[in-house]
Amino acid sequence: CVTVDAQAACRDAAVTQELLKEGFHRDLLVKVELGVVGEDAGGCTVAARTHLPPGIYVDPYELASLQQHNLTKVVLIPDVIDVEAPEYLATDLLVLLYMEPDPRCSRCFRAALPVHGRYHRPAEDSQEASVVLKSPEVLVCCCDNRLSTECWKPAEVEAPCSGRNAGPCQWYSITHRPAYEESILQVPVGLRHHSSLVCVVTLLTTVLCSSLILAAVCKYGHFS
To answer: Which residue windows are transmembrane per the record (predicted)?
Structure first.
């Protein structure tokens, strides 16, 4: 469980959100810097809650592998995700990303999460679609301590405070100053006037590959 000072958590936090890499497969990096860390620390957990729009998703199979190796800790709502759905058939996703302390800064926390862009409808004249990702909400949970929460705002989060707790506990939202109000993911899209060419090339490729497979079966196959 991440340890922070309760009074520090009540003060404004600075939040930075970055999308690393290019193309469809990216890494979402979130950094949180609390105001001041005092000497009277309590056992609290810091997390970032963010809404992913339909144009971005998290692969639950990839996430399960990362969590199995203790590389990240995330709660997804809903936990069932159609990774094949295009952007116009997908829904929003709520992500609760648990933060880890940054060894280079006593009041800093960070976490990274692999995210993926969904396919969009072909566009008329642009080869990229913009997906807007809002700044996350910073949450703190102090399940094992009776700390003053007069400057915190209760948050409705059905998630455990840490890996040691089996059941959910009370989370609180803290005020923060985002470095940027939003991040923009540019996703490559096709052009509508290329549709005929794409269909013809796809059909020819399918016929060619099917012919090669059929020829190989006839030549090397064993028929009774």
So the answer is: 195-218
The C-alpha angle with vertex 72 and arms to 70 and 74, in degrees rounded to 5, equals: 125
Amino acid found at 58: V
**How far, in Å, CA of 179 to CA of 12, rounded?**
12
CB 13 within 8 A of CB 32: yes
Residue ranges of domains in the chain:
13-190, 192-223
Tell me the per-residue pLDDT of 2-54, one tens digit each, with 9 for 90 and over.
444 444 445 677 888 888 988 889 999 999 887 644 433 345 788 899 999 99
Q: Which of helix, strand or coil describes residue 128? A: strand
Please tell me the class of the 13-190 domain.
mainly beta
Enumerate the β-bridge partners of residue 222: none
User: Is the N-terminal amide bond of 178 cis, ω within 30° of 0?
Assistant: no
Fill in the DSSP letter of residue 26: E
Strands (E), 81-152: 93-98, 100-101, 108-117, 128-134, 137-141
CA–CA dist 198, 193 (Å, integer): 10
Q: How many helices (H) and strands (E) does the chain have?
A: 3, 16
